Amino acid sequence: MLSYIGNKWAILILGELFQGNRRTNEFLAALPGISTKTLTARLRELERCGLLTRTVFPEVPPRVEYALTEKGREIQPIIAALSQVGEHWLGQ
Q1: 20-41 pLDDT, tens digit each
Q2: pTM of the model
Q3: Using one digit for the tens of pLDDT, what is the confidence trace for 35-59?
Q4: The domain spanning residue 26 has which CATH number?
Q5: Looking at the 3D structure of the chain, how many domains does it have?
Q6: CA atoms of 20 and 67, how far apart (whole Å)
Q7: Structural domain boundaries enclosing 69
Q8: 1, 5, 29, 58: which one has the fewest Cβ atoms less than 10 Å from its Cβ?
Q9: 45 Cβ contact list (under 8 Å, min separation 6)
Q10: Phi and psi dihedrals of 74, rounded to 5?
């Protein structure tokens, strides 16, 4: 699992999900520089390791929403601590 969350984009994606459920276009707007292909790959990896769920709503056009699982919510303090350390180091 560390190989998945150690990725730059994975941590940023999880950070977005800590704020609430997101759709693909919301990730793309919030994460400048990430391509649709990379976003899709990272979301699939995080889903495979059980950190998030993907829900497809039966609408036209289809609506897809991503949400943290319990396992994903459990790592929030770890990601927050890493963020604080990073901010501290950047502030020096």
Answers
A1: 999 999 999 999 999 999 999 9
A2: 0.86
A3: 999 999 999 999 999 999 999 999 9
A4: 1.10.10.10
A5: 1
A6: 7
A7: 2-91
A8: 58
A9: 4, 7, 10
A10: -65, -25
